[in-house]
Amino acid sequence: MWKYVTPIGTLFIKRLDDGRYGFEKDGVLWDVCETPEAMLDSICHHFTGCAEWDASEIEVPVDLDKWVRL
């Protein structure tokens, strides 16, 4: 699992029980992808289904190494 703190809340990329990776914000699972890198790409392009995040102009690192690994 990875996390990144933003001005509108903490974003998480979590491995799910089925082996895919999900985007979680505020305790809600918003999107699911096959790899953490694909999930990060959706987050970086603000294409997650989370209206608050998708409408924001906040940038996050495009490299998972810049996120906090939990």
Walkthrough of the structure:
With 70 residues, the protein is an alpha+beta fold. The protein has helices spanning 36-44, 51-55; strands at residues 2-6, 9-15, 21-25, 28-33, 68-69. A five-stranded antiparallel sheet has the order 4-3-2-1-5. The longest helix has 9 residues, at 36-44. The N and C termini lie close together (5 Å). The relative contact order is 0.25.
In this structure, how is the largest beta sheet organized?
A: 5 strands, antiparallel
Overall 3D form: globular
Helix and strand content put the structural class at alpha+beta
Alpha plus pi helix count: 2
Q: Strand sequence of the main sheet, in spatial order?
A: 4-3-2-1-5
Mean pLDDT: 98
Distance between the termini: 5 Å
Uncertain stretches: none
What's the Cα radius of gyration? 11 Å
Secondary-structure element sequence?
EEEEHHE
Helix content: 10-25%
Beta-strand residue percentage: 35-45%
Number of E-type strands: 5
Tags for this entry?
five-stranded antiparallel β-sheet; 5 strands; 20% helix; 70 residues; alpha+beta
Write a brief caption for the model.
The chain is α+β, with helices and mostly antiparallel strands and 70 residues long.
